Amino acid sequence: MKPGVSSDTFPPRSHEAKRISVVEAAASVFCREGYAGANIDLIAAEAGVSRQTVYNHHGDKEKLFMAVVRDLTERCNAGIFATIATFPDQPADVESDLVAFAVRMNRNCICNRDGRFLRKLIQAEGERYPELFAEWREQGPGRTWSALAARFARLAYAGHLSIDDPDVAARQFLALVNAELQITFMLGGMPTEEEVLRSATNGVRTFLAAFGRRKAAPARQAALAHA
Amino acid sequence: MKPGVSSDTFPPRSHEAKRISVVEAAASVFCREGYAGANIDLIAAEAGVSRQTVYNHHGDKEKLFMAVVRDLTERCNAGIFATIATFPDQPADVESDLVAFAVRMNRNCICNRDGRFLRKLIQAEGERYPELFAEWREQGPGRTWSALAARFARLAYAGHLSIDDPDVAARQFLALVNAELQITFMLGGMPTEEEVLRSATNGVRTFLAAFGRRKAAPARQAALAHA
DNA sequence: ACAAATTTAGACAGGCTTGTCCAATTCGTC
DNA sequence: GACGAATTGGACAAGCCTGTCTAAATTTGT
């Protein structure tokens, strides 16, 4: 704002780049070591900046932690909404389209770096910062579950599913397609592509056995309905 | 061993009592504060003993942590197996019996003190102690899931369910009956009795919609089969 | 009641961490 | 090329924590 009104935004350039670098390194270290075990020197080293720069940008450890959680929440939410936008509203084949959707959701939102980090921070430090995580809860699961439920309701209304309570169905869908990944998630690991696919396939099959419309010849019906 | 061979076991009496008291206080503090943030003085105070006593019993912080995890793992496993033993092998009414079983499982094993503590420690510190948590994984989920799958297989063999892969069904059963408690678990909270019941009811209904035998008049058939 | 073991409170050194300060240096912009 | 802002490295005090040690007090078993 002060230095000059020339190129792009007010801070020169690498100022913001370093800020991001610090937040990312901090996310990694906070997750690995926990809040108390996280060491500012280590964060600075991992970000490739000096310790003083960390303090210049974020004030103190607690403010840095808050910035990390806000950043992760924002990016994860964006990813989840972007993925929900790819929900199959007019499925050619309900099963394979839902499996593909579940795999996308896992890959882009739950198993990726941001998703794993945010989950771990919430689990580990959620009780210590009630307002911060209440905010996450409202803007995250609160809104994304509603959005997903709306998509399932539409699918049911179009006759592809038979659902009583779309909110319950949405939560159960997520629970089912992740059923076989629980342990891996618990230990902070990253499931293989094959594990994700298998869990999604098994989950969607059960989901459709419970909520799918009965159909005499599935493949033919689907083909006719769409072609 | 040395002092006398008289009353019960070698350490007098409150020796062992204090040991247990320390482990329990340690579990609580490790969960609240994380491994790095846990303070031996605080653990000692919460256990009602002096700091030196903690060191006398457990050597150092890391050994104490291991003792805590071993203790929790053991008690949780015992609870889970005891609860699996109450699985309804000859259900009067499949739905209500499975709901009751799911509620028991949640109340006695997953939502209770030990269950919440163990889960949080695994999530937070699992990556730091690979062998310790590999041991938990083998003796915990590895064996309990098999045991539960065997019970579902028996239920299917007896004609109450229609299941392809009992292992998958067991995992999905657990995922479904906990589907609505995920957020609460994530934040380390304790769901109310009513929340547990509702999640279990919704989960079992979906589970039976997917795996239940079709039945024309459910109530009558169940009554006939049993009475 | 006595003797042995355990527990306690407190002090203590050593190490690590946070957060601040400052002079020297680098970087981006004009 | 020169100016100003940002960055760096290092030193620094203050605080906290672990783990050890000691002498006194308490408990336990006989």
Automatic annotation (TrEMBL), chains A, B:
One matching Pfam family: TetR_N
Keyword DNA-binding annotated: yes
SUPFAM superfamilies linked: Homeodomain-like (SSF46689), Tetracyclin repressor-like, C-terminal domain (SSF48498)
Record has Cell cycle as a keyword: no
GO MF annotation terms: DNA-binding transcription factor activity; transcription cis-regulatory region binding
Boundaries of every HTH tetR-type domain copy: 16-76
DNA-binding stretch(es), residue numbering of this chain: 39-58
UniProt keyword list: DNA-binding, Transcription, Transcription regulation
Species of the source: Mesorhizobium tamadayense
Transmembrane segments: none
Classification via Gene3D superfamilies: Homeodomain-like, Tetracycline Repressor, domain 2
InterPro entries: Homeodomain-like_sf, HTH-type_TetR-like_transc_reg, HTH_TetR, Tet_transcr_reg_TetR-rel_C_sf, TetR_C_Proteobacteria
Name the record gives this protein: TetR/AcrR family transcriptional regulator
